[in-house]
Structures are given as structure tokens and as C-alpha cells.
Amino acid sequence: MRIVSLLPSTTEILFAVGAGPQVVGVTFECDTPANARERAIVSTTAIPQGLSATEIDAFVTRAMAAGEDLYHLDAGALASLDADLVVTQDLCAVCAVDVSVVDDALAYLGCRAEVLTIDPHTVEEVLGSIETLAKASGRQQAGARLVGTLRDRLAAVSTVVQGLSTPRALVLEWTDPPFAPGHWVPEMVTAAGGTSALGTAGEKSVRVTWAEVRDSDPEVVVCAPCGYDLSGSAELARQAMESGQLPVGVPVWAVDANASFARPGPRLVDGIEALAGILHPESAPAPRRDMARRLV
């Protein structure tokens, strides 16, 4: 089976269950594991490089209002790969190529590849997507083992935080303008032994005001801007602090959003473990230095 993966998370999952040799095409963002970079790149972004967080938000807002695609699918590259399976999404037009674009391209090319849509909204659905991809790629047993390991780690975190206080944690999925978290992120806070100050589990992330951020009365702020690694998140967190918009006297952390928050793959469990260490430093192991950094 020849597989084209149009999501960084599904690329990571496919490699994690041993289907890496079957993956022949990926996106420009597929960087985990490192050898995913050796595959042909079939989709790129329309967002110009070097924009600030404010400029990215403005560009995305204008493009969405105009009905423009934020990602470009290289139909020629897709055709040359002779894929049996194309994995895509219908979850967020800002995150990756939409399934409708893939369907149109395959129809135009006359390709008969199966299209598998992966759209998890919760942690449980993320685990289910691992099993789905493992089955589709003929790696069902490996998928079951991986999911079992992830469930064991989640159970271990639950045991550590059981009976402890549940501090109010505000995770910012964007900082300028601020966005409250959605999908699986509020659930990650709960699993780590906290209370999500803003955002609704299973729903989309939403733009909020800085007044709403302050009124949410968080005990800790975690900056996890979608598309940013730890150093990028830390820089945006510093900018937010320097603007004077964050609640005064509240600890501020930056995390590697790409690795463990924004992408619905196995490393969400890393993010939950990191959050547990942030929220309960007296009981849970401190987050790894490559995953989280406290700024104040």
C-alpha cells in the first residue's frame, strides 16, 4: 500500500505504528519523525513566511472571508505517487488541506485512491484515529499496542492528580488576538488535574478579548499557539506579557504547541504529562525542558 498523508499528526501516527515505509507523500509541515522529510511533499501553505502572529491572523481572516484555500495541493506530485490511500481532514481549514480539495483533485486526475478522513475532536477520538490508521495500513496490532501504552500513561497521570486541587489553567491557542482553546485541549487540562479557565472541550477554539482572559481568573497561563515550537511559543508569551494584557501575578508558561498540543497524535499524552507537572509541581514530574518553559 502506498500512502499519502496530508496531516503532520497522521504522518506521525503512521510512522509510530510501523507504516513509515508505506508513506510516499507528506506535507511541508510533516517533520516528525525526522525521516518523514525524505518523502515527496505534495502540499504547501499559502501563508507568507515571516509574518507576525497579528499578521497571520489577518491573512487567514481575509482568505477565509474570500473563500480562498490556505493550502496548495500539488496535483501533479500526487498523481506521480500512484497512491492507494490518501489521509486528510475535514476538521479545520486553517490547519491542512480540506477533504473536498482532495476529492476534487483525485477526480480531476482520474485517481482511484481511497480517501480516509481523520477528524478527532477529543482525546478519546485521537486514540481512535490511531487505531483507524493502524487498521487501514495493515498495522492493527502495532496500533493496539501503541494505544494501550498511551492509555497506561494517561491512567498514571490520573492516579497522580486524583484528589488534588484543580487549578484554573488558561491555555492560549493564539496570542494576538487571543484564542481560547477548543477540541481536545480543555480535556487535556482536565486530564492533567486542572480546570480549563476558557474554552469548551470538543468544540472549536474561539477568539476572545483580553478582558475575557483576565476575567477568567486563571491561576496559570499556558501559551500554546498553533503552529509554533517551544522557542516560538516563548517569544509570543513574552510579547503578551510585555503588552500588559496578561493577568498580573499569574505564572506564565510556554509549551511546544506543535509537538504536544496542536497536533492530534500520540504526543498529546506528552502534553498532558507536561501540564500535570505545571499544575501540580509538588506531585507530578516536572515537564521536560524541551517541552515547556516557565517565563514568570
Topology, pairings included?
Blueprint: E1 3-5, H1 8-16, E2 23-27, E3 40-45, H2 53-65, E4 71-73, H3 75-81, E5 85-88, H4 99-109, E6 114-117, H5 123-136, H6 140-161, E7 168-172, E8 174-175, E9 178-180, H7 185-191, E10 195-196, E11 206-207, H8 210-215, E12 220-223, H9 230-242, E13 252-255, H10 257-260, H11 268-279, E14 292-294
Parallel strand pairs: 1-2, 1-5, 2-3, 5-6, 7-10, 7-12, 12-13
Antiparallel strand pairs: 3-4, 8-9, 9-11, 13-14
Helix pairs in contact: 5-6, 6-11
Q: What does this entry look like structurally?
A:
With 296 residues, the chain is α/β, with parallel strands linked by helices. The chain has 2 domains: 3-121, 3-Layer(aba) Sandwich (Rossmann fold), CATH 3.40.50; 165-294, 3-Layer(aba) Sandwich (Rossmann fold), CATH 3.40.50. The chain has helices at 8-16, 53-65, 75-81, 99-109, 123-136, 140-161, 185-191, 210-215, 230-242, 257-260, 268-279, and strands spanning 3-5, 23-27, 40-45, 71-73, 85-88, 114-117, 168-172, 174-175, 178-180, 195-196, 206-207, 220-223, 252-255, 292-294. The strands form 3 sheets. A 6-stranded mixed β-sheet has the order 4-3-2-1-5-6, with helices on both faces. A 5-stranded mixed β-sheet has the order 10-7-12-13-14, with helices on both faces. The protein is globular. The mean pLDDT is 93.
